[in-house]
Amino acid sequence: MTTARAVIDLDVPGDVISRHLYGHFAEHLGRCVYGGFWVGEDSAIPNVRGIRSDVVEALRALDIPNLRWPGGCFADEYHWRDGIGPREDRPQMINSHWGDVVENNHFGTHEFMDLCEMLGADAYVNGNVGSGTVREMSEWVEYLTRDGDSPMARLRRENGRDEPWQVPFWGIGNEAWGCGGNMTAEQYALEARRYGTFCRNHGGNELYRIAAGASDDDITWTRALMESLGCLTCGSQPAPVFQGVSFHYYSHAGAGINTESATSFAPEQFYGTMRKALDVERVIRRHEAVMDSYDPDRKVGLILDEWGTWWNVEPGTNPGFLFQQNTVRDALVAAVHFDAFHRHAGRLKMANIAQTLNVLQAMILTDDDGAMVLTPTYHVFEMNRGHHDATALAAHVLSAPAAADDVPGLSVSASTRDDSALVSLSNLSLDAPLDVRVDLRGRGAWVRRARVLTGTDAAAHNTPESPDAVAPASLETSIEAGVLTVTLPPHSFATVELDLA
């Protein structure tokens, strides 16, 4: 048995961990929307106004804070007026990015906002910059959020919604360096300023506009966007035309996205995945450093609105639908991402895993016969709920054996709210248990509950036949003289809930 030591300062508060770091993403891609969220009002699968009931119930248990829609690459070919009015009258389109399938637009603006209200989640609407117009996006903002009398407010009422919605988050396009227009950073920065100017606040709805930024650590985009905002430290300057800058980051085992199996992998591929997932912290730091040089007061947020693993699709499924299985390895990817997010909560304000249902690193897998499976990644989100809007605590690994070259054996983070704390721990070793001793300093502490998530091996996953092959279980712990002791099985994630004196 190997031993790791860590320290958590229970009386040294840091930044608030925004609940929006636990955000989600639903693109018109594969079976995320159609067959996932949306089954239609005539479906034999229980639903409310066409939205699948068991999916809503499962996501409500996560306290899902926000949902990004309609894309992704799809956003820059989506024209919102095609998705309003009587469903039978809505025009069809071709989803050229994802499977070249016909999109009937039955799930549109009203259906999405209905879903958000069922979930209790804030809406994050991604507008069309690539093939749309400034007027189109401006009118969508008006349609959704304006009260009183206006052309778009009247149109909304004609379609059955009297009161406006609150829609705080707006994406100004997506991946403008690629599927969103193949622009240069300088070209897109000008577009972001223009679109941001005409996406207006209506009534009490204040927009948080998010400019589409980099892939991975391409800080060229972050620098161009921050440069375009002008002097953020000059008191006479107007408010920024966008309030957030995004980037995207996907994990894989080393050969690149969409090249390797989700369930069949060698030890070196497991550790390659951990190495890539852990590297998100370096990427965050690079973007932070650029933003800090222009914006030391941190008025503009960093947004990671696509992240997760990207494996080969499951055999026999449409390659354009990006349906992949979800294993213990994926759960650990999520766990180490969240540890990094907590440490950078001062600048990182939102993150959206890709994606919520049936696509990439999904929370939930469904089928057309009514089966629903909660994935290992779902359980990490559920076990970490206590970090939402809590205050990060200083947590440091003092010593730990390496799981592999450049892969530490232990990852840890912690937060506090009122007289409680939540500690998250991950053993990144594929085959060795880890005895962890955490020095809890500054306040007295007692264990309220401790749980662990693991499987028979790192490829373990849930299926309709074995829905609980990977599920949280009770974990034995002890605290003596202020030291929390816990033994983590190989390839495992654990949370320890503490009551504080």
Automatic annotation (TrEMBL):
Q: What's its EC?
A: 3.2.1.55
- UniProt entry tagged with the keyword Cell membrane: no
Q: Which UniProt keywords apply?
A: Carbohydrate metabolism, Glycosidase, Hydrolase
What's the superkingdom here? Bacteria
**Which InterPro entries does the entry mention?**
Alpha-L-AF_C, ASD1_cat, GH, Glyco_hydro_b
- What reaction gets catalysed by this protein? Hydrolysis of terminal non-reducing alpha-L-arabinofuranoside residues in alpha-L-arabinosides
The record ties this protein, via Pfam families, to: Alpha-L-AF_C, ASD1_dom
**Similarity-based family:** Belongs to the glycosyl hydrolase 51 family.
Q: Describe its partners and assembly state.
A: Homohexamer; trimer of dimers.
**Family annotation (PANTHER family):** ALPHA-L-ARABINOFURANOSIDASE C-RELATED (PTHR43576), INTRACELLULAR EXO-ALPHA-L-ARABINOFURANOSIDASE 2 (PTHR43576:SF2)
Designated name of the protein: non-reducing end alpha-L-arabinofuranosidase
